[in-house]
Amino acid sequence: FVSDFRSSAAADQSIHVQISSGMLTTRMDAGQLTQIITNLVQNGLRYSRRNHPSAQVWLNLHHDRESDLPILEVLDDGPGVSEQHLSKIFEPFFTTESKGTGLGLYLSRELCESNQAHLEYIPRPHDGGSCLRITFAHPFKTS
C-alpha cells in the first residue's frame, strides 16, 4: 500500500510508517484492508492540509501491550474532530464536507467489523490531529 501511495501521491503529500519490531500477523481480506487504509489516509491528508501547506499522515503498526492484538493507527496533524461531531463520525451520510458523501468512515468501520476488527477514533488533545485505530482480531483464533 505505502509504495503504491507514494508513487501516486502529490508532491505536497507524505506518508510516514512506523512498524514495531517483531512480526505482525493479521487475519483480514486484503482488498478490504486496502480500501479501509486508502480511505483513512485520504481523510487524514485532507484534514492535515487544513493546518499545514503540505499534508502528511503517519501509519503506526504495533501490538497492543495488554491484549497482544495487532493495531494499525492512522494519525494526522489536522484540526481533529470537534466534540459536537464525535458521536456522529461513523454514521452513514454524516459529513462536514461540501463534497463528501459521509460514507467513508461508515464503510471503513463496517468492513472492519466484517473481518472481526474494530475501528475507533482516538482524540489527540496534546498532539492535535486525529488517530483512527484499527484493532485486528487475533490472527490465529476464529470467532
Automatic annotation (TrEMBL):
Listed under catalytic activity are: ATP + protein L-histidine = ADP + protein N-phospho-L-histidine
Pfam families membership: HATPase_c (PF02518)
For this protein, the Enzyme Commission number is 2.7.13.3
Q: Which residues form a coiled coil?
A: none
Write down the PROSITE patterns for this protein, in alphabetical order: HIS_KIN
Domain Histidine kinase intervals: 1-140
Q: What Gene Ontology terms describe what this protein does at the molecular function level?
A: protein histidine kinase activity
InterPro entries in the record, alphabetically?
Answer: HATPase_C_sf, HATPase_dom, His_kinase_dom, Sig_transdc_His_kin-like_C
- What name has this protein been given in UniProt? histidine kinase
Species whose genome carries this gene: Pseudomonas syringae pv. maculicola
